[in-house]
């Protein structure tokens, strides 16, 4: 997914670039795309990506705050989980399912937000290494965090994610009718009991 | 998906072939793949496919019984909905969700059954015409029939399908853990309440 040739040697520093220029940011993102797709999300490090880009790690933190933020920018994802998860997990627990359902459906209703998400899904379908990268990011940055905050088993978040992602695929890619044409509010009404049931699960009875 | 060159003229009869040979069946399937991908499932006809293959329509019926059967054979799908749907819709209504969930998970647990299903999904993700063909088949041959038999709104079957298909994707393509490793019985326990709720829906309150 990187426009940068893979043959470029790791860790080569480019002389004469001023830190903090617009070009530096692009250089870090190119290095991030290359490193994430080679090593996966978990094994990639801010330090390694900085070295690959020939910049100081502090500059990476300055631009992207975290490895998650860098992944979001590198893959051109429409939202940063750091911003969204608190919105889902704070507020009344019995309404968390509705907040999550409405957020996913509203976010993916905008084509410019949906396209990078579907592009990642297409890549995961055909490339095992990219599937691993996406799995690590989704698990680490999204599903585990919500599951820990709500104190539910991870598999319940995965079932909820499978339901919502499946609906986005059927609505926008397969275009099943009437699923593709009903309003977001109608879908929220249909899906919220499912999602809320998963989020209500207890650690004692993970699968009930 | 057809190995046959598209330039071959429609309706050309091949002299000297005996009807009913093994080759005739392959010839019909090649014509079916070409016709389905060009016209979609709904607009393709047994008569048109027979003409394309240069055989008598009666021979198509002899080999495949129905247009659905021909699609299943042409796409190398592991099961024919004609065989499966009665098994899902007969028996106690309050257990239909469990029967459907267990069937989908058991069927896709075999790699040779799962691969053609995932191949169709990959194609749908990248090719609008193939997505339309798959949409028409899934709607006509699977979802509408179950929805009509159980007298529930079609959108509820689509939500159930999105849940089950989403789980298959997350288990076998993205390989989210622990979803990818738990037993089919554990997944049946986790997902059945969701699927049963969709199948319990009434026509009066389609989205509740």
From TrEMBL, chains A, B:
Keywords: DNA-binding
Pfam family name, one: TetR_N
InterPro entries on file: Homeodomain-like_sf, HTH-type_TetR-like_transc_reg, HTH_TetR, Tet_transcr_reg_TetR-rel_C_sf, TetR_C_16
DNA-binding span(s): 45-64
Residue ranges annotated for the HTH tetR-type domain, each copy included: 22-82
Name assigned to this protein: AcrR family transcriptional regulator
Basic and acidic residues: bias regions: 1-11
Region annotation (Disordered) ranges: 1-24
Leader sequence segment: none
């Amino acid at each position: 997914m990187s426009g940068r040739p893979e043959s470029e040697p790791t860790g080569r520093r480019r002389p004469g670039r001023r830190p903090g220029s617009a070009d530096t940011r692009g250089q870090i993102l190119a290095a991030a795309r290359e490193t994430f797709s080679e090593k996966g999300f978990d094994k990639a490090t801010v330090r390694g990506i900085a070295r690959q880009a020939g910049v100081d790690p502090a500059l990476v933190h300055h631009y992207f705050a975290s490895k998650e933020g860098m992944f979001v920018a590198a893959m051109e994802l429409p939202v940063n989980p750091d911003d969204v998860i608190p919105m889902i997990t704070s507020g009344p627990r019995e309404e968390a399912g509705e907040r999550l359902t409405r957020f996913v459906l509203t976010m993916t209703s905008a084509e410019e937000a949906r396209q990078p998400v579907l592009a990642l899904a297409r890549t995961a379908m055909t490339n095992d290494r990219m599937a691993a990268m996406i799995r690590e990011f989704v698990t680490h940055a999204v599903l585990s965090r919500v599951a820990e905050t709500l104190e539910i088993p991870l598999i319940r978040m995965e079932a909820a994610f499978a339901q919502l992602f499946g609906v986005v695929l059927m609505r926008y890619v397969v275009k099943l009718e009437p699923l593709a044409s009903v309003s977001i509010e109608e879908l929220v009404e249909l899906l919220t009991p499912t999602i809320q049931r998963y989020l209500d699960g207890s650690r004692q009875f993970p699968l009930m």
